[in-house]
Design goal:
The protein has a domain at 38-110. It is 64% helix and 0% strand. The protein is built from 3 helices and no strands. It has helices at 38-46, 48-104, 106-110. It starts with 37 loop residues before the first helix and ends with a helix.
Length: 111
């Protein structure tokens, strides 16, 4: 066995008009830089107020969505609890009716 690492072969890419050799990674221009990279810092330094405003708006929207979902969850939970209570009332009513019928029925009293 060879000490070299096994590498999966890459099928040749179709010819492109660019002078770059084909590779598996996209061009640096196609991928936005990470917000903390040096390349993007200059952009952030140029417009810190705008970026801060964008981030704070996104944070507000996220919090609003979280609150909205919590309200919906509480509403749904209350609906389910109300439904359970109604079913319990119906069950109690049925038990009472069953008891009444058993008392009246001569066949049921013998058992």
């Amino acid at each position: 066995m060879s000490l070299l690492t096994h590498r999966k072969s890459i099928s040749p890419a179709p010819p492109t008009s660019s002078s770059r050799s084909p590779s598996r990674s996209p061009s640096p221009d196609a991928v936005p830089p990470h917000p903390r990279s040096r390349r993007s810092r200059s952009h952030v330094d140029q417009q810190p107020a705008e970026m801060e405003e964008v981030y704070s708006r996104l944070a507000r929207e996220k919090e609003e969505e979280k609150r909205r979902l919590q309200v919906e969850m509480r509403k749904r939970e209350q609906e389910l609890l109300d439904k359970i209570k109604e079913q319990q009332r119906q069950l109690e009513f049925m038990k009472v009716e069953k008891t009444k019928v058993r008392r009246r029925c001569p066949i049921c009293r013998r058992r």
